[in-house]
């Protein structure tokens, strides 16, 4: 064996010993941090796995063989809050995960049985630090929404009589999240140690990003900051006449509770409902919403990265009169754009407008990670074919016609799966050419695809 090869092997052995020591230290810290809670959560996970396994065996005996992504999605739903959020992360990250998993996790249900109001009330009172009646004139005990991590109740403030919503973290969620995420991160480190090939895929780094992202989502102070930044942008840009976001009552909000102005309106995708609540042209509302959101991408540290129909409302005012304003709600999921990604995105958008597919290909190749030389001309031809296919899809999918009373009404048939299929095609073309895109670009493109489809349907 040559001295150079032996020296290389010694360096690798030293690096692996250091990595193993770090994993053992991480394991020790995790056990100390989670203790009994970790053992309880492990038992719950085992119960969930046994339940799904039993269901799988019963289906198999009946000749039904479900693919791995379906089984994993069902297991995630059984495991609860952390894994449902992880499923949502997978669904929102087509640049990181295989297509079949992204599409399957679009079905991951984030609807859970509500926690009784008397239990939630204790959290609200604890966060307020005073009797709940001192702040709220009334609170609806039936939640407006109940998800895996939080639930939302409508209320009226005592002093101002303003309508608000109270978003409250469910009891015990923080502990479960911390335990599960610690375990997932540690498992990724172990997998990388066993199979060094996984370290080249940055598995532990991806899981670390997931952990940071999910922990931000359950710290409502972060969400309040995102809303405040967006509100300041609206004021600076003069866009507050056409768009708004909920006012946050900081005096009543905390890490585990967010008290916000209640915005009433109809989904941005429901053209018939928009026409009922406002005389403003729906197309101009859509364009204003796109311009407002895109301006925030330029001007703010973060951008709203969850632009589905439920989070964009065409508003009515407090007296129920049409306003034509678009309300942006739920800033729990946000994205950040690095300078490199932004430079490439600018080139991409310019190329899209001019149908310059070679420039588009170069922009995507610049922002993506690649170990090979990209054939820009071939990449451009593939993008052009995709773009042509998307353009023909608009008239077939977006407009849905109803025959109620013999009249035709316009509606938009949009869903997350449809958005992801288009984005996944872009990602797949990139993969075919040796390009792996960062998650932030996927989040940006997905929001742009939403708006593109909204506007195409008007």
TrEMBL record:
This is G4766 protein. InterPro entries: ABC1_dom, Kinase-like_dom_sf, Mito_struct-func_regulator. Pfam families: ABC1. Residues 109-362 form the ABC1 atypical kinase-like domain. It comes from the Eukaryota. The gene is g4766.
């Amino acid at each position: 064996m040559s001295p150079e090869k032996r020296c290389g092997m010694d360096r690798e052995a030293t690096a692996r010993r250091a990595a193993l020591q770090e994993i053992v230290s991480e394991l020790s810290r995790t056990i100390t941090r989670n203790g009994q809670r970790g053992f309880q959560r492990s038992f719950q996970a085992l119960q969930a796995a046994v339940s799904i396994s039993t269901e799988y065996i019963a289906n198999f005996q009946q000749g039904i063989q479900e693919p791995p992504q379906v089984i994993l999605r069902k297991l995630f739903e059984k495991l609860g809050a952390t894994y449902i959020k992880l499923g949502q992360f997978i669904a929102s990250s087509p640049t990181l995960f295989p297509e079949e998993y992204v599409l399957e996790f679009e079905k991951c249900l984030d609807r859970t049985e509500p926690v009784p109001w008397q239990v939630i009330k204790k959290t609200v009172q604890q966060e307020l630090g005073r009797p709940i009646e001192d702040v709220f004139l009334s609170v609806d005990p039936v939640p407006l929404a109940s998800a895996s991590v939080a639930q939302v109740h409508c209320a009226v403030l005592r002093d101002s009589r303003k309508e608000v919503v109270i978003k409250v973290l469910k009891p015990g969620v923080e502990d479960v999240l911390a335990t599960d995420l610690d375990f997932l991160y540690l498992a990724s480190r172990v997998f990388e140690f066993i199979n060094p090939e996984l370290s080249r895929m940055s598995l532990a780094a991806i899981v670390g990003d997931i952990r940071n992202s999910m922990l931000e989502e359950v710290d409502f102070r972060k969400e309040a900051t995102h809303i405040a930044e967006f509100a300041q942008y609206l004021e600076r840009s003069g866009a507050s006449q056409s768009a708004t976001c909920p006012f946050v009552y900081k005096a009543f909000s905390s890490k585990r509770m967010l008290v916000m102005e209640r915005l009433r309106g109809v989904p941005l995708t429901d053209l018939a409902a928009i026409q009922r609540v406002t005389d403003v042209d729906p197309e101009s509302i859509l364009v204003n919403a796109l311009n407002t959101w895109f301006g925030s991408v330029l001007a703010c540290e973060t951008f709203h990265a969850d632009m589905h129909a439920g989070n964009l409302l065409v508003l009515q005012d407090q007296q129920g009169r049409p306003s034509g304003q678009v309300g942006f709600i739920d800033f729990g999921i946000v994205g950040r754009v690095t300078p490199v990604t932004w430079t490439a995105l600018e080139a991409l958008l310019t190329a899209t407008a001019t149908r310059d597919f070679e420039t588009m290909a170069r922009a995507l190749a610049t922002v993506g990670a690649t170990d090979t030389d990209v054939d820009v001309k071939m990449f451009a031809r593939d993008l052009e074919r995709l773009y042509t296919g998307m353009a023909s899809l608009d008239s077939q999918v977006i407009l849905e016609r109803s025959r109620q009373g013999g009249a035709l009404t316009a509606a938009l048939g949009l869903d997350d799966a449809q958005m992801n299929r288009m984005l996944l095609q872009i990602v797949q073309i990139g993969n075919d050419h040796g390009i792996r895109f960062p998650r932030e670009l996927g989040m940006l493109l997905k929001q742009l695809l939403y708006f593109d489809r909204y506007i195409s349907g008007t």
